[in-house]
Here is the input.
Amino acid sequence: MKNKTVKLAFMKSLPVLAGYIVLGIGFGILLSKAGYGPLWAFAMSVLIYGGSMQYVGVDLISGGVSILMTAVTTIMVNARHLFYSISMLRVYKDSGKYKPYLIFSLTDETYSLLCDGKTPEGAEPEKYRFLVSLFNHSYWIIGGVIGNILGSVLPFSSRGIEFSMTALFISAFVEQWITMKDHIPAISGIACTLISLLIFGPENFLIPAMLLITLTLSLLRGRLDGKEEMK
Amino acid sequence: MTSPVHTAALIAVMAIGSMLLRFLPFLVFRKKTPPFIAYLGKVLPSAIIGMLIVYCLRETNVTAMPFGLPELIATGIVVLLQIWKRKTILSIIAGTAAYMLLLQVVF
Here is the structure.
């Protein structure tokens, strides 16, 4: 029974494997170019565990900015995690001893795998979610350390491979579209973010987008609440 | 290059800041989740995934060559494959391979 949960969790985590190794390597290379060795890569990937945050983090540590500046940047870059946690309140409610780690390791990618709240038949749900999170985290750490050690001696051009993460989100979006009855939340997410991107540009649009999404969904509450059930 | 102590301090700040954001909703709504927050929790997943797609494609330039065509084609491949086969890994591998090919060979 236990082995089945491990196997199912591993299968679920596979789409993240390639993407995390590659993005992790990208981070490791960047960090080594800034003059920091594998121990730093390891520490950052274990403790911070967030893609865009760590890429920005390379600039922060190599630039030697202040603690306050770092704190503000962290909150700006990672504010979307508030959203993930709010929508996982119910799913992670009864996770017991796994709960702290599940919350800690809730990245974009892990969120996209687990946010529907579904677990496959025959898996122990809490353990399954824990293992999916743990596998993803380990891919990320391995990628970061490998990239840092290898530096920039990749044998082939990996240009464009970052699309694997985009593809993961697109397929998650399509899956949700197929299984959800009401498509208004999905459309609001794309529309609000696009509007915000057009107004604020690619550097600063994420927080306005989140506010706009929250506002839109609040206004639509009368229409959507109670109707939408995740199957 | 800054001192290792300062670097370690900055990493700690980033780690604690990220953790705080992830834990905050769980700490604030520990006892009871207000109906409005529960409602948001239900409708947010599809909205956020939509947001993340736009976020990933934010640097796409549609006003100059190749006019975002590699992104558009690769996205189309992922969408169609996912509808047709519903195998996430297949959609990702095919979409990414197509994108790399378009970027490195075609455009």
